[in-house]
């Protein structure tokens, strides 16, 4: 952290033209550059008698940092003396979001919420705004996409009406910053980066130059004011934030909001997090009342049945640090074609094909010439190799027209030799399956794990052995 001088001696220097101001502005009035004004330590400047020497306010690597290494902002200190509250997370009031953020939102941070159009980013942020407002904090939503009337309408529908929640319809960055200045909110939400326009910057709104200017200005705004900014960034089908992913390095945190058009489930993943881990995933569901968090998602990916059905199997996959129980369903039909078709939904087609080949070649099951369908339940993605064993059992169940026992989960990667290979985090997966009432598990041999109380764990070394164990009577 920079040594904070008193408010009176704050000075902001343009990294582009060295113009000095006593107040932070989004755009340098001298050269017109956006987001170029940075706070400098006046004492350091005075001591050296030159402008443009960094006081160490972070954001290293910017242009104009001539000789920035000469004056350390603060002397080095033992790690034990570092104030742990520097990056203090403030809970947003939405547990699943806080989980991904690493405990909450950090003051002065810039967060990019990326996702495909229509996935529900605006709705999610309205929930965040409402939760924040209900805690007694002021929130400003700068909406460049929708009118304030549209946002109010959605707020009514989702129970987000609150006096602390302010709306302004602005697509001009300068006007947006004036709104921030006038209200002095404690959280700023910008929807979206691609529809904000920075005057004087080349290109259309949403273009690379525009999006970069808007993003870097909002990031410095967050840093200078200490107010966190969450900005929406639209991602195209190809997975790039329109005006590409180059803006990711300009922000502190990048979250991806993902979901399938045919499913109401939404997943929030940390892609980058300067203040925490990125291996967490948050679960949400899109309902008529907005985007609601799902604190316990596992049960959603199962068909709760009292009778087993042929062709289905259950496994546990890891999504980040979270174990999730999911169901696989398969069907095999006689095909008229020489190269029978394979239809996969939510599964890795190449892994399913590999498991099919192993079943045909090593276990002698007649599946090679069949048209095969394989799908997950509830829009879940089951792409991990650890789901191979469950995939194999589901397909074997289809081929033998015999259901697997109820209450069984299968965990293990399958190799081309038909061997069942070890998988990571077995203890955690078994615990989650047990919690949801599964009482028997098939696992690879030679794994280190702790079996949950009351769960029967059967170790298998090959897929054929697992098939025989579960479907022996067939
Ligand atoms: Zn300037």
TrEMBL record:
Instruction: Detail which positions bind ATP.
Output: 115-122
> Keyword annotations for this protein?
ATP-binding, DNA damage, DNA repair, DNA-binding, Hydrolase, Metal-binding, Nucleotide-binding, Stress response, Zinc, Zinc-finger
Matching InterPro entries, A to Z? AAA+_ATPase, DNA_repair_RadA, P-loop_NTPase, RecA_ATP-bd, Ribosomal_Su5_D2-typ_SF, Ribsml_uS5_D2-typ_fold_subgr, Rubredoxin_2
Region annotation Lon-protease-like: residue ranges? 371-474
**Assigned GO CC terms:** cytosol
| Top-rank lineage group of the source organism | Bacteria
GO MF annotations, alphabetized: ATP binding; ATP-dependent DNA damage sensor activity; damaged DNA binding; hydrolase activity; zinc ion binding
Keyword Hydrolase part of the UniProt annotation = yes
- Indicate whether Nucleotide-binding appears among the record's keywords: yes
RecA family profile domain ranges (all copies) = 86-235
Q: What is known of its domains?
A: The middle region has homology to RecA with ATPase motifs including the RadA KNRFG motif, while the C-terminus is homologous to Lon protease.
What does this chain do?
Answer: DNA-dependent ATPase involved in processing of recombination intermediates, plays a role in repairing DNA breaks. Stimulates the branch migration of RecA-mediated strand transfer reactions, allowing the 3' invading strand to extend heteroduplex DNA faster. Binds ssDNA in the presence of ADP but not other nucleotides, has ATPase activity that is stimulated by ssDNA and various branched DNA structures, but inhibited by SSB. Does not have RecA's homology-searching function. Plays a role in repairing double-strand DNA breaks, probably involving stabilizing or processing branched DNA or blocked replication forks.
Which family does the entry's similarity section mention? Belongs to the RecA family. RadA subfamily.
Record-given protein name? DNA repair protein RadA
What does UniProt list as this organism's lineage? Answer: Bacteria, Bacillati, Actinomycetota, Actinomycetes, Mycobacteriales
Q: Which gene encodes it?
A: radA
């Amino acid at each position: 952290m920079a040594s904070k001088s008193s408010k009176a001696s704050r000075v902001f220097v343009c990294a582009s033209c060295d113009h000095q101001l006593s107040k932070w502005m989004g755009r340098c009035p001298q050269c017109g550059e956006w987001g170029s004004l940075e706070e400098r330590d006046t004492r350091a400047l005075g001591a050296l008698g030159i402008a443009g020497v960094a006081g160490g306010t972070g954001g290293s690597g910017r242009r104009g940092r001539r000789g920035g290494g000469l004056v350390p902002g603060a002397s080095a200190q033992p790690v034990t003396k570092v104030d742990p509250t520097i990056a203090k997370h403030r809970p947003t009031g939405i547990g699943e979001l806080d989980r991904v953020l690493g405990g909450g939102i950090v003051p002065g941070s810039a967060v990019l919420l990326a996702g495909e159009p229509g996935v529900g980013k605006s709705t999610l942020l309205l929930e965040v705004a409402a939760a924040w407002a209900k805690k007694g904090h002021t929130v400003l939503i700068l909406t460049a996409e929708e009118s304030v009337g549209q946002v109010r309408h959605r707020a009514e529908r989702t129970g987000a009406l609150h006096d602390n929640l302010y709306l302004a319809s602005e697509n001009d960055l300068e006007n947006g910053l004036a709104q921030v200045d006038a209200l002095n909110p404690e959280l700023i939400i910008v929807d979206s980066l691609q529809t904000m326009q920075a005057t004087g910057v080349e290109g259309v709104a949403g273009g690379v130059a525009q999006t970069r200017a808007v993003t870097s200005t909002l990031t410095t705004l967050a840093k200078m004011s200490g107010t966190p900014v969450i900005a929406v960034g639209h991602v195209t089908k190809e997975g790039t934030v329109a005006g590409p992913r180059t803006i990711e390095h300009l922000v502190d945190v990048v979250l991806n909001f993902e979901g399938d058009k045919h499913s109401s489930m939404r997943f929030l993943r940390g892609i980058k997090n300067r203040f925490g881990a990125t291996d967490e995933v948050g679960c949400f569901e899109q309902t008529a009342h907005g985007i609601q968090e799902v604190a316990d998602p596992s049960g959603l990916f199962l068909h709760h049945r009292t009778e087993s059905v042929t062709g289905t199997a259950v496994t546990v996959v890891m999504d980040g640090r979270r174990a999730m129980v999911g169901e696989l369903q398969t069907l095999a039909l006689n095909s008229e074609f020489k190269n029978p078709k394979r239809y996969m939904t939510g599964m890795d087609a190449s892994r399913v094909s590999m498991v099919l080949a192993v079943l045909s070649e090593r276990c002698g099951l007649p599946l090679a010439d069949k048209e095969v369908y394989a799908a997950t339940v509830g829009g879940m993605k089951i792409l991990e190799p650890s789901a191979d064993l469950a995939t194999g059992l589901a397909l074997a169940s289809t081929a033998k027209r015999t259901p697997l026992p109820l209450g069984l989960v299968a965990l293990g990667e399958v190799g081309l030799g038909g061997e069942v290979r070890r998988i990571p985090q077995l203890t955690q997966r078994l615990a989650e399956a047990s919690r949801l009432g599964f009482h028997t598990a098939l696992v690879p041999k030679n794994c280190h794990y702790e079996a949950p109380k009351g769960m029967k764990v059967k170790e298998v070394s090959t897929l054929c052995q697992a098939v025989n164990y579960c479907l022996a009577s067939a």
